[in-house]
Design a protein that fits this description.
It is a single chain. By secondary structure, the chain is α/β, with parallel strands linked by helices. 41% of the residues lie in helices and 21% in strands. It is built from seven helices and seven strands. Helix 1 (15-23) runs parallel beside helix 7 (165-200) and helix 6 (121-129) crosses helix 7. It has a seven-stranded mixed sheet with strand order 3-2-1-4-5-6-7, covered by helices on one side.
Length: 201
Amino acid sequence: MKKINIAIFASGEGTNCENIIRYFKDSDRVCTALVVSNKAESPVLRKAQELGVPVQSVSKAELNEETVMMPLMQQYAIDFIVLAGFLPLIPDFLLEAFPHRIVNIHPSLLPKYGGKGMWGHHVHEAVKAAGETETGMTVHWVTPVCDGGGIIAQYRVALSPEDSAEVIAEKEHVLEMKYYPQVILRVLTSYQNDNDNEEDK
């Protein structure tokens, strides 16, 4: 069985990225073939390299340049793109090249607290300000609309009035670390099965 090659796009510290790499390290189905960051100094690149995964930093201009990104995807035979704390919008040519093959994680229960400007601590501060009694994480398909793609999975955690935005972030992050790799595996397994069925026809 041919392994599915994934590229992880990440911008920050890389905790989710590292978690995904470790989750699939010994998988006979999935290979983390590449990590891409829009920040050359991002810790995620160092963490990925230490785990033996090829890395590439791309500027905003390069990310939006088809003649840069498509050869990169082809070089590593990428089948699927996983966003793990990647802040820039994905350009249309990548969405068209990877239809229903790009997933993202968002630190709230979408459609609440999604859209432009809603990332990281901004989300958790908004959840706190609204007095929410729960929060959670959402895995969704990536479309041209920021955080607007179809929801694949959501996981929830209860909040108390005493929880600070930092505590809310910690509670939500536990969900990400536990569930995001599992959801990715489920999506990739479905993708692989669909491909196998097409080949059998």
